[in-house]
Write a structure and sequence with these properties.
0% helix, Methylamine Dehydrogenase, Chain H, mainly beta, 4-stranded antiparallel sheet, 5-stranded antiparallel sheet
Length: 330
């Protein structure tokens, strides 16, 4: 990337559904990144970033330094429609969820570069013939000790648990069977407690899951993401760093639902804030700025919502000029 396009890494990166990748600077400045098309997700690998791409010839994973210079060759993920990327606590393994193939891939990481993929395909389907004719992995994440790789599958109505040993998946089981037709999409972890919050896209509900000592999940609470019934597709989900508030994006009504976690086992809906655009696919909490950055996938720019000391969201304003925003990271 030329020096003129460099922006402080702390201000982040964003991706557009049009295929572009952008560095985000102070005062909502935006600069294109010369890393190719189809950026889908990024994670920090310690000395830079791993970046996941979705292109016509499938999924690809590449390693970059802090200035977005490539550290080595990109590698195929073994799928055709990757949607999510995660890194293990030791930063030695990366995992990819592939929606189109209904699979996950596991990659060793060395010096910021990903190795060849081990691909494991899910099995299962749900009652929604249009959305659940087969498995559709939508999210991946490692447990705190790195022994389990979890994968949320919208098509199979399940959260799969893949046992990881010596950098390989050696066993697969179902950690949680979601209600038929609920279409689980993403998980957010509680920062200190053995709890996970599952956003179900087709049922527009948030389910609280207790994590057992065996790594499996038990549902202990479930509630809608809206106060009143409506046609809605739950999108992204996140918990703030103190574990005080839980947020879920509602596509359709175009709101961000805010849940109070005074009792972390039973989130309470306290606010539905306007997202500042159309179809909030993703949002990013930026605690250093006291705000939330929202990627509205059908809007000409991202939106910014102030986050109050109580965790509630203020009125949105226009944000970085990234059209059809689908992802952002610090």
């Amino acid at each position: 990337m030329p020096a003129s396009a460099r922006l402080p890494q702390r201000d982040g990166v964003a991706a557009s559904s049009d295929g572009g990748a952008f560095a985000l600077g102070t005062d909502d400045r935006v600069r294109p990144l010369a890393i190719g098309t189809g950026l889908e997700w990024t994670v920090d690998h310690g000395a830079g970033r791993l970046a996941l791409f979705r292109r016509r010839d499938g999924g690809w994973l590449g390693g970059y330094d802090r200035e977005w210079r490539a550290l080595g060759a990109i590698v195929a993920t073994g799928g055709r429609e990757p949607v999510h990327l995660a890194i293990d606590p030791a930063r030695r393994l990366a995992a990819v969820a592939d929606y189109g193939a209904g699979s996950v891939s596991l990659h060793r990481i060395a010096r910021g570069v990903a190795g060849p993929a081990q691909v494991v395909r899910h099995e299962g389907r749900g009652p929604d013939a249009e959305r659940q004719a087969g498995p559709h992995a939508h999210w991946v994440g490692f447990g705190r000790d790195g022994r389990w790789l979890y994968a949320v599958d919208l098509g199979a109505d399940a959260v799969f648990a893949h046992r990881v040993e010596r950098g390989r998946i050696v066993d697969t089981r179902i950690a949680y069977a979601a209600p038929p037709g609920s279409g689980p999409r993403h998980i957010a972890w509680h920062p200190t407690l053995p709890l996970a919050y599952l956003a179900c896209e087709l049922a527009n509900r948030v389910t609280t899951l207790a994590i057992g000592t065996d790594g499996m999940f038990t549902a202990i609470d479930s509630r809608p993401t809206l106060a009143r019934p409506a046609k809605v597709y739950a999108g992204h989900i996140a918990v703030d760093a103190p574990g005080r508030m839980l947020y879920v994006s509602n596509r359709g009504p175009d709101t961000i639902a805010a849940f109070d976690l005074a009792d972390p086992r039973r989130p309470v809906l306290v606010q539905e804030a306007a997202c500042g655009g159309d179809w909030p696919r993703f949002f990013l909490l930026r605690p250093n700025h006291g705000e939330m950055l929202v990627g509205n996938e059908r809007s000409p720019a991202m939106a910014v919502l102030p986050v109050g000391r109580d965790g509630r969201l203020g009125p949105p304003r226009a944000g970085p000029a990234v059209a059809k925003g689908r992802f952002a990271a610090l």
